[in-house]
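Technical annex B. To support the medicinal chemistry partners, we prepared a structural model of the target in complex with adenosine-5'-triphosphate, based solely on the information shown next.
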Amino acid sequence: MEQKVSENVLIELKGLTKRYGYGDTESFALKDFNLSVKRGEFIMIMGPSGCGKTTLLDIIGLLDRASYGEYYLNGENVAGISARRQARLRAKKIGFIFQNFNLIDDLPIIENVSLPLIYSGYSKTSRLKKASTALKRFHLEEREYYLPYQLSGGQQQRVAIARAIVSDPEIILADEPTGNLDSRSSHIVMEELKAIHEEGNTIIMVTHNPALTVYATRVINMLDGQIDTDIKTVADANLPQPISVKIKKKKDNFASLEDVGKSLKKHKKSRRKK
Ligand SMILES: Nc1ncnc2c1ncn2[C@@H]1O[C@H](COP(=O)(O)OP(=O)(O)OP(=O)(O)O)[C@@H](O)[C@H]1O
Ligand SMILES: [Mg+2]
């Protein structure tokens, strides 16, 4: 029985600390942060600006590293693994949705959506087919060869969601995904995330909008790099059951690794601007 419970734990953070600067300039974005995330949870993270929400998502998403502490993903301590392995794990297991969409401007949306499949071993044709299927789900099939700027904000965010789920990741991370959208588009995006969650996916989402917490199974309020309150609104036993899809391995990488890098750099750049 014990084992079953731990098998269900997807993420375990222990004593996670993110420090910036030294001496007089020392500050902590996260302080001795502990969190256990089960499969099928839909966690919403709230808290004042600067309390460490994005830092937390970036570390969970293997875009950033903690200064100290342990991070277990599926039972494996990934805190100290190489950047190369981080990139691989990220592509396979984690789907990202950002506030400013982070699509590559000069790639048609179908190619944007196919980017996370680079490490999957699929041929380019299969990757585009999968991307096309994902776009259909969001009713964007007629716009496959549009460039991002030719879409509305709500449509761009749906492209970003298609990109986040195309590789069937274990976890979807969303940092204020409705932050740049009007209320109608926000609603559509939230309904999509709800459907994705009901299929058994695990979602961690940062939001400033308390009205959105109705979609969550757990709401965490952060303060000064720590958890202030942590409330589960759905019992673990009632979380949706994951549907596991196995991907067949085939060797074939193509040259758009650069594009994946570009997308992540865009996120980091927009962070530095803040
Ligand atoms: N590269 C950096 N160098 C120094 N301090 C940083 C850096 N990145 C983030 N911080 C600090 O870490 C703290 C947490 O930042 P973070 O971006 O995680 O906050 P947040 O909760 O996401 O805020 P917001 O709601 O405004 O997005 C802030 O005080 C910020 O100034
Ligand atoms: Mg933030």
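Notes passed to the chemistry partners:
The domain at 40-65+84-273 is CATH 3.40.50.300 (Rossmann fold).
Helices lie at 2-7, 53-60, 83-93, 109-114, 124-137, 153-165, 183-198, 257-273.
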